[in-house]
Amino acid sequence: MAALAVSRFRSVLASAIARRQGRSPRVVGTLYGRRRGHFHLSFQLKPQMQPLMLLELPTATSDATLSINTRCGYAFRRECRPEDWKALRAVEKVSVGAGVLPATAGGDGLEGEVMYMRAMFERVVGSKDTEAFYMINPDGHGGPELSVFLLRE
C-alpha cells in the first residue's frame, strides 16, 4: 500500500511540475519485456529518474497475434525491481526507437533477449480514476501511434 502511495505521489508531482512550466505533461515511455515473458510499461519524467509508474501488462511477448488496439485487461502497478532498472538503464540513451537487447549470461534476473520500444508520451488526466498516455509521433505528422488508457477500479 505504501509503494502505491509513493508511486501516486510521483505521478501527481510530475503533473504539477509540467503544468507550472506551462506545458502538457510529457513523459518517457518504455515498453519492454523478455521473450516468452510479459510486457512491462514504464513512464519516467526523465530517462535517468525513478519511474513515475511501472505496469506489468497481461499480454505475453510471445503472443504472435498482438494487436494493441483490441487488447485490454488488468495491469499490475508495482515498484521498479533491479531487473527493471537493468533494462531501463540499457536503453537510457535511446530517445525514440525500438530494438532488442542481447541476452546476458548469469543469474542477474535479466536473462534472455529483451525487446523494447521507447518514445515520448503526453499524459492526460481525465479524473482521479482515469488517465491516458498518447505516444507523440516523432515526425510530427498524423495522430498517436500508440495510446494507453488506464482506469482504476
From TrEMBL:
Entry superkingdom: Eukaryota
InterPro entries: MIZ1-like_pln (IPR006460)
One biological process term in Gene Ontology: hydrotropism
UniProt xrefs under Pfam families: DUF617
Matching PANTHER family: PROTEIN MIZU-KUSSEI 1
Protein name as annotated: Protein MIZU-KUSSEI 1
Annotated source species: Dendrobium catenatum
